[in-house]
Amino acid sequence: MLEIKGVHKTFNPNTINEKKALTGIDLTLSEGDFVTVIGGNGAGKSTLLNMIAGVYPVDCGRILIDGVDVTRLPEHKRAKYLGRVFQDPMTGTAADMQIDENLAIASRRGAMRTLRFGVTEKERAHYSELLKSLDLGLETRLSSKVGLLSGGQRQALTLIMATLKRPKVLLLDEHTAALDPKTAKKVLDMTEHIVARDNLTTLMITHNMADALRVGNRLIMMNNGKIIFDVSGEEKKNLTTADLLEKFKISAGEDLNNDRMLLS
Question: Could you read off the pLDDT of 55-106 as tens digits, one per residue?
């Protein structure tokens, strides 16, 4: 479902601020793979997701989604293949629009636009059923402005919006990091349910090593723009956070020095 072949990305090349963000990334995800991505600051995790989404052009290499070469497609033309949830709950929704209007925008993604006004009663009923599964009371607040929602409610809504059209690939960029632990667990549990229900191919960046080990069927570790460890199946299930720290030390040749990951 997703193939990344020999992708390189350098920011500010040939300057004092040159940064090699990705150096020869090769990664293949089969349909339904749920891959967690961990690594220290500057490892290249967010750059990898941005390259898939088309935020930055690749220096060289290819990116294919479900067999379609999207390497040279701009971000807006790639959007029909992707769903994305960001770390900041304020990103991914229109704060001044109602909940049902935000959902309508998401449901119309990639479709022809018309002059028809508003959201139909049939659509509102459908959105109400979707929101009821969140158990956050949002199904009774369809006309509320999204900007009035809490961070957890907004992130849950963004997750529904990102998966409404069943994207080819779902990109989750530390989407629970800005939430309190209780809300983060609820959103992560919801993520697992939606991914399993729709068999979505998913890449999830997280700083929480316990979550990275518990969630998904595969884990990759990045350092200095490279994938240094890739584990799946039973081997992943049997790993501990201590094992991950040791794997990092062996693969990177140094101890992991990232407070957020270590404290998590």
Answer: 989 999 999 999 999 999 998 888 889 999 988 878 888 888 888 888 888 8
User: What's the token pair of residue 230?
Assistant: 């890739």
90-112: b (≥16 Cβ within 10 Å) or e: eebbeeeebbbbbbbebbeeeee
Residue 72, classed as helix, strand or coil, is coil
Report the amino acid identity of residue 162: A
Q: What letter does residue 145 receive in the DSSP assignment? A: B
Q: Which of 86, 56, 91 is nearest to 71 (CA)?
A: 56
CA pseudo-torsion sign 99, 105, 107, 113:
positive
130 vs 251 pLDDT, higher one: 130
137-160 in b/e burial notation, b at 16+ Cβ within 10 A?
ebbebbeeebeebebbbbbbbbbb
Per-residue confidence (pLDDT) for residue 58, from 0 to 100? 92
237: part of which helix (H) or strand (E)?
Answer: helix 233-237
Q: Which of 104, 88, 79 is nearest to 161 (CA)?
A: 104
Angle of helix 99-107 relative to helix 121-132, nearest 10 degrees? 100
Predicted pLDDT of residue 205: 94
Question: 177: how many CB neighbours lie within 10 A of its CB?
Answer: 15
> What integer pLDDT is reported at residue 116 of this predicted model?
55
**Which tokens in the block code for residue 211?**
């979550």
Compute CA distances 66 → 224, 242, 261, whole Å: 28, 36, 32
Q: Which domains does the chain have, with CATH numbers?
A: 2-263 (3.40.50.300)
Q: Residue 176: is its pLDDT beyond 50? A: yes
